[in-house]
Amino acid sequence: MKTLIPTAALATCCLTGLLIISSTTQTPGTARAGDDDSKSQTRADFQKYCSLNEGRWIGNVTWVTDWPGFGKKGDKITAYFEARKSEDGNAVITRFLGGPGSESGLVFYDPAAKKIRSVTVSSGGTVFRATLTPVGDNWRQHVDVTLPDGTKGKIRLDLIYANGGNNLTIHINGKLGDEVIKDQKDIWRRVRTPQSK
């Protein structure tokens, strides 16, 4: 039996991920312009990433494939994502809830590698490891995915922010096992910032 993961959930591995359709004039090419994935990141970059993603987000998600612990291809759910600073601002704890499944993650700055990294585990047993890179005012994530059966994948997410950072369009490309994921698009909306009452 082939085990696949919906691309909508890939976005949550670091955000990282968020939805409810917003219109944006930017395309995935905008996020990629002038990109240098090998460039070192700084702690200031990490703080910028934190401020862009902190808070609560909501989205309407349709699973594009079967996903262990979450649902079947075609299932439509409302998904929730939350990111909050921890450890005196040196880490971000993330939480994703979608249908019967959930994910917990940790985003942090790795000073030895000079990279922003994340690790996320889903209730279905999938593990996500990512590196995050600023691309102008937007971000890119390179994600290594391991499914519960050991199937591996590599996914790239281009995160495009709009509306003062309160809307996020995520363009997803890559390969998971034998499945090719090409320009999948997820759109999220922030419903609460840390400063909201």
The proportion of residues in beta strands is: over 45%
Rg calc = 15 Å
Number of domains: 1
* CATH architectural label: Beta Barrel
- Percent helix, as a range, is 10-25%
Helical segment count = 3
Q: Main sheet: which strands, in order across?
A: 1-2-3-4-5-6-7-8-9-10
Could you describe the 3D structure shown?
The chain has a ten-stranded antiparallel beta barrel. The chain has helices spanning 7-10, 28-32, 43-53; strands at 55-62, 76-86, 91-98, 101-110, 115-122, 127-135, 138-146, 152-162, 167-176, 179-192. With 197 residues, it is mainly β. The model is unreliable at 1-9 and 14-34 (pLDDT under 50).
Ordered list of secondary-structure elements with their pairings:
Elements: H1 7-10, H2 28-32, H3 43-53, E1 55-62, E2 76-86, E3 91-98, E4 101-110, E5 115-122, E6 127-135, E7 138-146, E8 152-162, E9 167-176, E10 179-192
Antiparallel strand pairs: 1-2, 1-10, 2-3, 3-4, 4-5, 5-6, 6-7, 7-8, 8-9, 9-10
